[in-house]
From TrEMBL, chain A:
<dbReference type="GO" id="GO:0000160">
    <property type="term" value="P:phosphorelay signal transduction system"/>
</dbReference>
<dbReference type="InterPro" id="IPR036641">
    <property type="entry name" value="HPT_dom_sf"/>
</dbReference>
<protein>
    <submittedName>
        <fullName>Hpt domain-containing protein</fullName>
    </submittedName>
</protein>
Automatic annotation (TrEMBL), chain B:
<keyword id="KW-0597">Phosphoprotein</keyword>
<dbReference type="InterPro" id="IPR001789">
    <property type="entry name" value="Sig_transdc_resp-reg_receiver"/>
</dbReference>
<dbReference type="InterPro" id="IPR007492">
    <property type="entry name" value="LytTR_DNA-bd_dom"/>
</dbReference>
<feature type="domain" description="HTH LytTR-type">
    <location>
        <begin position="137"/>
        <end position="235"/>
    </location>
</feature>
<protein>
    <submittedName>
        <fullName>LytTR family two component transcriptional regulator</fullName>
    </submittedName>
</protein>
<feature type="domain" description="Response regulatory">
    <location>
        <begin position="2"/>
        <end position="114"/>
    </location>
</feature>
<dbReference type="GO" id="GO:0003677">
    <property type="term" value="F:DNA binding"/>
</dbReference>
<dbReference type="InterPro" id="IPR046947">
    <property type="entry name" value="LytR-like"/>
</dbReference>
<dbReference type="InterPro" id="IPR011006">
    <property type="entry name" value="CheY-like_superfamily"/>
</dbReference>
């Protein structure tokens, strides 16, 4: 699976280490909340609402330079708006992969 | 240039703050996770530029633009380029930035704003954000001008030749018309629900079929005004 990385954040931060640290903290805080929100909506069988959360999560993929995951989630967001949840397991795998990565930074 | 950032995602706001820090002319004076909070802020203070996320739950960026009476320059931040292109019909929208943003593209966008501002006649340029213009209303009561802050007003009711302005603490009877006071109120937070009533949209407690509750006041909603009220709601 595509590996998340901090290249975009580092480029944005330049030598501003404080920003880099602060930004990582924001991602570490915001990402699990969005994942929990997404899971809750899927469990309640609310795919259209879940699409809104996928919309937010896909930005995190972008920030973590995960282009393939981003493209996948653009498609998944559209599927959810149509009420289709078949891609949920694959999306969950991406989320788990990122959660594991975030624990290492 | 004083600017604010509106985005429901903290990470996205942090990126814009960081990019702004690299452009000396930009001064981020506040950031908001909801458009409603930003509207309240803009009723108190003017800004030169808004970075606005177009895709927010409930009250979208476009809804936000439509509620502003005299919008400053706006740069949309989005991943939905189709939405962004459609938004160009609004004069205030100068550019859009696709997430994730780069410094180079960001700087170009700021240059566009500067070019637009320099083309405007000076009289049309907005006053600086510190002016505080437009945050309150003076009403004439027995030859005394009383200052009311917009966010203190609950509702205004037409009563014959008078209007009654109800605030959280007091009611004021003013010899004026609903039409005239409506012109003085910011569209973002005030809404006419009936030919005799204007309400402060942010003070709504609940809504039933034909009425809205503002604190303890039940205000009627006419059939013709109901669609606009419903459009503005952050409806689940």
């Amino acid at each position: 699976m595509e590996q998340p990385n901090l290249s975009y954040i580092k480029e944005l931060a330049g030598d501003d280490i404080a920003f880099e640290r602060k930004f990582i903290d924001i991602i570490k805080q915001e990402f699990p909340l969005e994942v929990a929100e997404y899971m809750g909506l899927i469990n309640k069988d609310l795919p259209r609402s879940a699409a809104e959360t996928v919309h937010k999560l896909k930005h995190k993929f972008n920030i973590l330079s995960m282009e393939k995951a981003y493209v996948f989630s653009v498609n998944y967001e559209e599927e959810l708006r149509l009420g289709h949840t078949e891609l949920h397991p694959k999306f969950t795998a991406i989320l788990n992969h990122i959660e594991t990565y975030l624990k290492t930074i | 240039m004083n600017c604010i950032i509106i985005d429901d995602e903290a990470a996205a706001r942090a990126i814009v703050v960081q990019l702004c820090s690299k452009v000396p002319e930009l001064d981020v004076i506040d950031e908001f996770s909801s458009a409603i909070d930003a509207i309240k802020f803009l009723n108190q203070q003017t800004v030169d530029l808004i970075f606005l996320d177009i895709h927010m739950p409930g009250f979208s960026g476009i809804d936000f633009v439509q509620t502003l009476k005299d919008p400053p320059k706006i740069i949309l931040t989005t991943s939905d380029t189709n939405f962004a292109i459609a938004a160009y019909e609004y004069e205030a929208i100068v550019d859009y930035l696709v997430k994730p943003m780069t410094l180079g593209r960001f700087e170009k966008s700021i240059q566009k704003v500067k070019n637009t501002l320099s083309k405007q006649p000076k009289s049309e340029n907005r006053e600086s954000a510190s002016s505080g213009a437009g945050e309150d209303l003076y009403i004439n009561i027995d030859r005394r001008l009383i200052k009311l802050k917009f966010n203190e007003i609950l509702l205004i009711e037409a009563k014959g030749d008078y209007i009654e302005v109800k605030t959280e603490k007091e009611s004021y009877r003013v010899h004026n018309t609903l039409k005239k006071i409506k012109e003085k109120l910011p569209e973002g937070i005030f809404l006419q629900t009936h030919r005799s009533f204007i309400i402060n949209f942010t003070k709504i407690i609940d809504i039933e079929d034909n009425s809205v509750l503002i604190e303890k006041n039940v205000v009627p909603i006419s059939r013709s005004n109901r669609p606009e009220l419903m459009r503005r709601l952050n409806l689940l």
